[in-house]
Amino acid sequence: MESFAPIITKIIQKDAFVFLGNENVVGRQNQLDESADFGKIWGDFFDKGGYNPIEPYAEDTAPVNVWFNDTDGKFIYMQGLFVKAVDKIPEGYSLREFPACEYLMVTTEWLDRHDRSVGYEGNGRCNEYADKTASPEGYERFDDGSVPLHRIEVEVGPINGSYRYEVWLPLRKNKRG
Fold first, then answer.
1. What pLDDT, in 10s, does the model give residues 23-45?
2. Are the C-beta atoms of residues 23 and 71 closer than 8 Å to each other?
3. Degrees (nearest 5) of the Cα angle 87, 70, 24?
4. I want to staple 27 with a disulfide (CB 3.0 to 4.6 A). Which of 33, 118, 147, 156 is the partner?
5. pTM of the model
6. Residue 38 has what DSSP assignment?
7. Over the stretch 123-151, which tens digit does the pLDDT of each residue have?
């Protein structure tokens, strides 16, 4: 049996943020359409320049994916970066603002290679865990379509030669908390 780095969870706070990236409709109201072609989505992203046109505005160059519902109920997968002071949105990209929120961050211990963090050991396991985990005591998840944000995925590293993948799930204090 293969041994993987343990899953780690903690509650984090993220201030309101601005996100610049490539929007892709992948379903409706948090429901992924089975026909969503992520190979094409990523191919199109890199064909138009990938992160290069948005890096000048980046707060951090860690790749980020934001999953959310737009005002029409479309389920959006957006690749990009957290940004600040965008004076001109690059052609083919979109700028979105999101509110401050607490998140349940799901990650692993630091891994020695990028491919491990973005492969099953990091990305896959963190998303699987995020899909089934209970809310922390005193909180409830609200990634059910009642707010626009569904989840955020962040590639972290290299930091001292190590990498990890993070999945952030929006939280709010529950009525009992």
1. 999 998 878 898 899 999 999 99
2. no
3. 75
4. 33
5. 0.91
6. H
7. 999 999 999 999 999 998 876 555 677 89
- Which phi-psi region, left, alpha or beta, contains residue 26 (left: φ > 0; alpha: ψ -120 to 50)? alpha
| Nearest Cα residue to 57 out of 93, 79, 81 | 81
And the tokens for 16? 């309101």
Which burial class, exposed, middle or buried, applies to 103 when counting CB atoms under 10 A from its CB (0-12, 13-18, 19+)? buried
C-alpha–C-alpha distance, residues 91 and 63, integer Å: 19
> Rounded to 5 degrees, what are φ and ψ at 96?
-130, 145
Residue 29: C-alpha distances to residues 69, 76, 80, 145, 148 (Å): 6, 9, 21, 6, 9
How is residue 11 written in tokens?
């509650």
Widest Cα–Cα separation across the chain: 52
